[in-house]
Design goal:
It is a single chain. This protein is about 70% helix and about 0% strand. α10 packs across α11 and α12 runs antiparallel to α13. The protein is mainly α. It has a two-stranded antiparallel sheet with strand order 1-2. It comes from Clostridium chromiireducens.
Length: about 375
């Protein structure tokens, strides 16, 4: 039986078109909304209203090519490159400290006319690749806390710590949450995950928030942003104004008022509020529905994957997108403290878009190799 499965490994069926079309729609909406949200800001800052559109458009095109490549490459080949990618990611996460900080954080490597590289975006998927490869080998050993849970928390914690040192608690949290989800999917015991890991992770998040003054201010402004309407509460208040002004049907594409220098960098983390202002509740529901479809189809691919490696890889990739979209929308709507997590496929950012599209290509390749596709294709 093992021999038969190994022979079929290179045979490809059709991709999951639910994932494909959902991502294409999100990408298209993202490019349009980046232009709509950034045009006024770009004109004010650089004299070119299409400045951010051009950069995001190029990133989108490169991302589509990357997705097409990984979609066609057997995902099992990633196993032999995982260690190399893990090692290569570490110096990238450290090199950022050689460059000046931006808005108080050191997260980017300047690339001249090509923009900048944000290594933390890569770190999320590096952890996913490691977990999928190692947990497949670990098997039932994941049920042991000292040898099956703790080592993985250590490796993920190492990358999360490097990201955290860049003053990026949000992405560090995403790494640890995705690790928790993957360990759960791999068969980790509930008493270990929910009795030990979850409380420790929560306590660590609280500690890192309380010990850093600017994070504590964000937490306080979340509880009542109007206590500091021109300081830490400003961005959230502007988000409320945007969402409130949009109503059910929105003011119309390109008609946002908050993007005219009221909302700081409206094309970045708070782009969802501009979508709410211009496209209304209907537009927001459409975006949320697309993410729900993506998550549903991603879980479906994971459940039908040909092997454990494919299952865990699909779970990890889907979790990264799911956790980030959930956090971003929660922040914009005032459901959790303000944190810098971009909305996947929609927020401005070439590194995030390129890496997310590459990961989606891997997910689509997994979907091409799920059980039964070759057989049905042969019939």
């Amino acid at each position: 039986m093992k021999i038969i499965r190994s022979k079929r490994k290179n045979k490809m069926g059709e991709i999951d078109y639910g994932i494909f079309y959902t991502v294409v729609l999100l990408l298209s909406i993202g490019v349009i909304m980046v232009y709509s949200a950034s045009s006024y800001y770009a004109m004010f800052r650089s004299g070119d209203s299409m400045y951010y559109l051009k950069k995001q458009g190029i990133a989108a095109l490169v991302g589509v090519v990357a997705m097409a490549f990984t979609m066609s490459m057997d995902y099992h080949k990633l196993k032999k490159y995982t260690a190399m990618i893990m090692i290569g990611c570490v110096p990238l996460l450290l090199v950022v400290f050689l460059f000046p900080s931006v808005n108080g954080a050191q997260r980017w490597i300047p690339l001249g006319p090509f923009g900048s590289l944000q290594p933390s975006e890569l770190a999320k998927y590096v952890v996913v690749l490691f977990l999928a490869r190692s947990l497949e080998v670990k098997g039932e050993g994941v049920k042991q806390f000292s040898t099956g849970i703790l080592p993985y928390l250590g490796v993920s914690g190492f990358y999360a710590a490097l990201v955290l040192s860049q003053k990026n608690l949000s992405i560090a949290s995403v790494i640890m949450i995705v690790t928790f989800i993957t360990l759960f999917a791999a068969g980790g015991k509930l008493k270990h995950l929910f009795g030990i890991v979850a409380p420790v992770m929560f306590a660590a998040a609280v500690a890192f928030t309380v010990l850093e003054p600017y994070r504590m201010k964000r937490l306080m402004s979340f509880t009542n942003p109007w206590n500091d309407p021109i300081g830490d509460g400003y961005q959230l208040i502007q988000s409320f104004y945007a969402l409130g002004a949009g109503g059910v049907t929105g003011l119309g594409l390109g008609q946002s008022r908050q993007k005219t220098l009221y909302m700081p960098e409206p094309h970045n983390d708070f782009i969802f509020s501009i979508i709410g202002e211009e496209l209304g509740l209907i537009g927001c529901i459409c975006i949320i529905t697309l993410f729900i479809i993506f998550i549903w189809r991603g879980i479906s691919v994971a459940m039908k994957a040909r092997d454990t490696y494919g299952t865990l890889l699909a779970i990890g990739i889907t979790s990264v997108i799911a956790v980030q979209s959930l956090i971003n929308i929660a922040v914009v709507t005032g459901s959790m403290p303000v944190t810098g997590v971009p909305l996947p496929f929609i927020s401005y950012g070439g590194t995030a878009l390129l890496i997310n599209m590459t990961a989606v290509g891997i997910l689509l390749n997994i979907s091409r190799q799920i059980e039964g596709k070759e057989e049905s294709k042969g019939n």
